[in-house]
């Protein structure tokens, strides 16, 4: 129902212009706390873009999308203007509804309005209204019941019945008919033809319809194949009969009764007998791609385009309730409930019908004044089947060879509206509970990061903001799945548009949760995977898909979207499954069963390779497996080159709990503890004692090996939920790492105290992240000196990350004071090449083997060694088998990589000669690009 009372209606107003009306409404909305200042400008702007005249004397001014953040609560204020105001092109508005609503609610309100306003005498009735109550009652007239649409849950296939009486009793139960209504049903039976029967009762209660198909018997000498039973009120059921009549007229109604599932029958009935997607010569079929479907503004532009032609133009939403409406009426158009991806079938008759259809198709495809994304962003149909070598971003190394399994996106079928909000709320709550049980089960089976992510999903499921958003929609008559999907969609869209790439990639988590609940609500099974092992190709693979997948069957992962730092990519690496992301929509056009080679080392997918390529890849894969096995056997041995140079190999940890596993995998210490993850894992700043315990946990697993702890690298792309900061345009260039700690020195002070206190006499190396300037280093060092003077931990060094080009360029100065450097090649590469590290499209450019990055590494090593200090590399480049000889040649002393890569890195070092690596490094520094360095590095060292 409308969020208004009679207090929200001002009767008998006189206003000079539509602008005056809009200003009056926006001020009223602001005064009553519905919107903040500035909404007025948004309303006027919307009006300037396209008039908000809905039809039948009603106008619905509202704000632009950009100003919806000014909406504080949903509401409507109404002005009744009996003299009328010229609103649009000679159309007079007598009732002006000023709307304050956020995005999803806005569309729902419009649809509701369109339903309520479908009476023909409306303009006149509005104009003549005397009291606010009259308007209120008009707006709240019982809309056509959603139960009088073809709903699959009111369709009963093959109802066991041998007589008409049995069938009518079954129908009465479905309709929740009273004894009196049953009697009416029995008395009002009509054979419509082709085995279809109609039975009607009249009700003052909620109208309902039910369709029952039968196994077939005869009644009054005619076949009984299906019964349409109605509890009707007024003319509400007319549309159903018209649609059924369409089938009868074409002689195809009998065919319908052979359909053996309710959804198929529902879709066929809604669509009408004309084959969907097969427009005739006076028809055209267009898919709407607007982000929010066909709401008022794009709708108005479509109506404008249609009105430019003399032809009569009808439009039908093939994915809605399937009836034709006049394309020149905005109100009718909105009543179609067109959502993104819905197909509109236009039928034009008249002299200029051809030109009209062409124009309508063009304006829709152009986006009706909005920026439109591709239909299904990654629609298979829009791509020819790709062949050969496809390039993407490598999210997890290794080679997988096998048949592809291309997972088609799942489509959920559901009604938009529901008339029993209480039942709908119950349905929603039960679905949430069930989804939570599934997640809890999966979490019980999972470990480590997978378990954490599932925990995060469970939290998301319980998010009160999300739930309240859904319930609010449900209370307004929206069905549970429609409400849930709208809430999920807007939350995920908001998340995806975050400037912060880490947060943006969490959109996949939201959609993932969304899909799981939708599957329950719509009783739709998520797709079955093949029996034999396969390479899984999907638009995006959610973290829960990964933790639930059968790792024995999934050889590799390929996603059209995604980024290398998404949760899915992190999990793929943790599970050691080769993975490629950001491949683009073309991969969705690949065929399931096609053989492919996924190379996570080179970031390529070779589709349908020839015999020769395949056998070479099999050889490489076999060799990689052998090497991995040998490497694992040798993992506890040091990494010494053939000419006797020893490289320290440490582990990169984000989670203190992984320390023991890393040591068992051959790590010689922790080369990078990303302490910010521990801070991000808490709901508030962890107290000093909590921090001490966490660090002690790592020390006890290390058994005397060194711990390199990086101080808090929060902010920017890794925000702390309990420390809100203003939004930054460029978070990677914003207040992060040491810069953030300078704003909150007590944070760093507590952390340094905790680290030094936890260390006891264990070797502790502390380093500051993101140091770009001398003052930042001095700030950290002075604080450290003061605390260390107090605690006097016996084996401590203080160093810094070199991950900003200025730090490398000024390394000589820093090396005088710092005890060591650790080069963060992930950030150093992104800042040197100005290429966002999370952007899959820039994967080829963001290569740490670029000579410019190597030059900065060389400067850093040279400066450190000149002062007798050591240098490590803790960025991803250290784990790259091609980069390792170059880094060795540049003189690094230590490398720190993810725990799974340690045995392989050590094994690789043992194959190399330092002398040859130095020659290679010299040539690499002179190379023109990263590709050239890779060619050099590919030659045997
Ligand atoms: C780096 O930038 O290379 C690094 C190791 O730090 P992080 O990836 O945590 O930013
Ligand atoms: Mg970094």
UniProtKB/TrEMBL annotation:
It holds the Pfam family PEP-utilizers. It is an enzyme of class 2 (transferase). GO terms for biological process: phosphoenolpyruvate-dependent sugar phosphotransferase system. One of its GO terms (molecular function) is phosphoenolpyruvate-protein phosphotransferase activity. Keywords: Cytoplasm, Kinase, Magnesium, Metal-binding, Phosphoprotein, Phosphotransferase system, Pyruvate, Sugar transport, Transferase, Transport. Residues 281-371 form the HPr domain. GO terms for cellular component: cytoplasm. Its cofactor is Mg(2+). It catalyses: L-histidyl-[protein] + phosphoenolpyruvate = N(pros)-phospho-L-histidyl-[protein] + pyruvate. Residues 2-142 form the PTS EIIA type-2 domain. It is found in: Cytoplasm. Its EC number is 2.7.3.9. Its main location: cytoplasm. Belongs to the PEP-utilizing enzyme family. This is phosphoenolpyruvate--protein phosphotransferase. The lineage of its organism: Bacteria, Pseudomonadati, Pseudomonadota, Gammaproteobacteria, Aeromonadales.
């Amino acid at each position: 129902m409308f969020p208004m009372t009679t207090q929200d209606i001002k009767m008998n107003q006189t206003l000079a212009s539509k602008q005056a009306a809009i200003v009056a409404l926006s001020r009223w909305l602001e005064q009553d706390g519905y919107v903040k200042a500035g909404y007025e400008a948004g309303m006027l702007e919307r009006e300037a873009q396209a008039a908000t005249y809905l039809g039948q004397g009603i106008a619905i001014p509202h704000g632009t999308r950009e100003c919806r953040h000014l909406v504080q609560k949903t509401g409507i204020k109404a002005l009744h203007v009996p003299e009328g105001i010229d609103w649009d092109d000679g159309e007079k508005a007598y009732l002006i509804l000023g709307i304050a609503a956020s995005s999803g609610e806005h569309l729902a309100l419009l649809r509701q309005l369109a339903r309520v306003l479908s009476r023909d005498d409306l303009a006149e009735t509005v104009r003549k209204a005397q009291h606010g109550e009259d308007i209120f009652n008009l707006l709240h007239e019982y809309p056509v019941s959603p139960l009088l649409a073809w709903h699959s849950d009111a369709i009963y296939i093959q109802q066991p019945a041998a007589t008409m009486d049995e069938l009518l009793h079954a129908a009465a139960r479905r309709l929740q008919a009273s004894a009196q209504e049953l009697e009416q049903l029995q008395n009002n039976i009509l054979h419509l033809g082709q085995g279809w029967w109609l039975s009607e009762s009249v009700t003052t209660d909620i109208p309902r319809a039910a369709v029952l198909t039968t196994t077939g018997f005869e009644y009054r000498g005619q076949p009984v194949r299906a019964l349409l039973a109605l509890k009707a009120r007024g003319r509400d059921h007319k549309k159903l009969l018209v649609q059924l009549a369409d089938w009868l007229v074409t002689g195809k109604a009998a065919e319908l009764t052979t359909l053996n599932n309710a959804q198929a029958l529902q879709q066929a009935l809604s669509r009408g007998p004309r084959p969907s997607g097969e427009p005739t010569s006076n028809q055209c079929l267009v898919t709407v791609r607007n982000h929010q479907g066909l709401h008022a503004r794009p709708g108005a532009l479509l109506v404008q385009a249609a009105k430019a032609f003399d032809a009569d133009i009808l439009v039908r939403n093939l994915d809605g309730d399937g009836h034709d409406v006049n394309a020149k009426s905005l109100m009718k158009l909105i009543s179609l409930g067109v959502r993104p991806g819905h197909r509109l079938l236009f039928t034009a008759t008249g002299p200029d019908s051809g030109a009209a259809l062409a124009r309508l198709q063009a304006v829709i495809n152009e986006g009706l004044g909005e920026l439109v994304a591709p239909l299904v962003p990654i629609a298979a149909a829009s791509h020819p089947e790709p062949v050969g070598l496809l390039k993407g971003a490598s999210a997890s190394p290794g080679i997988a060879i096998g048949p592809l399994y291309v997972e088609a996106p799942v489509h959920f079928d559901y009604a938009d509206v529901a008339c029993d909000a209480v039942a709908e709320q119950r349905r929603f709550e039960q679905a949430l509970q069930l989804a939570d049980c599934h997640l809890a089960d999966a979490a019980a089976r999972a470990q480590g990061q997978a378990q954490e992510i599932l925990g995060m999903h469970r939290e998301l499921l319980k998010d009160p903001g999300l739930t309240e958003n859904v319930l609010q929609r449900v209370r307004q008559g929206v069905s549970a799945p429609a409400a849930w999907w709208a809430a999920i969609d807007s939350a995920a869209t908001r998340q995806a548009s975050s400037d912060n790439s880490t947060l943006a990639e969490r959109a996949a988590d939201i959609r993932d949760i969304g899909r799981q609940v939708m599957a329950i609500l719509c009783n739709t099974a998520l797709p079955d995977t093949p029996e034999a092992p396969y390479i899984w190709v999907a638009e995006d693979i959610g973290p829960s898909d990964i933790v639930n997948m059968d790792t024995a069957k999934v050889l590799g992962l390929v996603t059209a979207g995604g980024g290398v730092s998404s949760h899915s990519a992190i999990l793929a690496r943790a599970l050691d499954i080769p993975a490629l992301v950001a491949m683009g929509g073309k991969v969705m056009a690949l065929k399931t069963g096609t053989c492919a080679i996924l190379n996570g080392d080179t970031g390529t997918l070779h589709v349908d390779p020839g015999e020769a390529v395949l056998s070479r890849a099999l050889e490489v894969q076999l060799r990689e497996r052998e090497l991995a096995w040998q490497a694992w056997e040798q993992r506890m041995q040091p990494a010494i080159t053939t000419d006797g140079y020893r490289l320290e190999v440490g582990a990169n940890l984000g989670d203190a709990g992984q320390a023991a596993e890393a040591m068992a995998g051959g790590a010689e210490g922790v080369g990078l503890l990303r302490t910010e993850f521990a801070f991000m894992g808490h709901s508030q700043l962890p107290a000093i004692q909590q921090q001490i315990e966490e660090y002690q946990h790592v020390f006890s697993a290390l058994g005397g090996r060194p711990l390199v702890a990086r101080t808090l690298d929060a902010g920017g792309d890794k925000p702390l939920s309990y420390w809100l900061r203003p939004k930054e345009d460029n978070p990677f260039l914003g207040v992060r790492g040491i810069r953030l700690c300078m704003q909150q020195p007590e944070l760093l002070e507590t952390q340094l105290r905790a680290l030094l206190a936890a260390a006891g006499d264990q070797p502790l190396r502390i380093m500051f992240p993101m140091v770009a300037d001398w003052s930042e280093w001095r700030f950290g060092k002075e604080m450290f000196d003061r605390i260390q003077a107090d605690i006097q931990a016996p084996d401590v060094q203080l160093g810094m990350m070199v991950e900003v080009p200025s730090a490398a360029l000024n390394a000589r100065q820093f090396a005088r004071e710092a005890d060591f450097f650790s080069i963060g090649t992930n950030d150093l590469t992104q800042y040197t090449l100005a290429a966002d590290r999370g952007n899959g499209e820039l994967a080829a450019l963001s290569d740490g083997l670029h000579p410019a990055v190597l030059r900065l590494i060389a400067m850093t090593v040279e400066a450190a060694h000149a002062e007798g200090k050591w240098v490590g590399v803790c960025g991803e480049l250290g784990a790259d088998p091609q980069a390792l000889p170059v880094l060795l040649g540049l003189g690094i002393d230590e490398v720190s990589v993810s725990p799974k890569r340690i045995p392989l890195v050590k094994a690789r070092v043992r194959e190399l000669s330092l002398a040859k690596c130095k020659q290679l490094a010299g040539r690499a520094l002179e190379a023109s690009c990263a590709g050239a360095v890779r060619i050099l590095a590919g030659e045997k060292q």
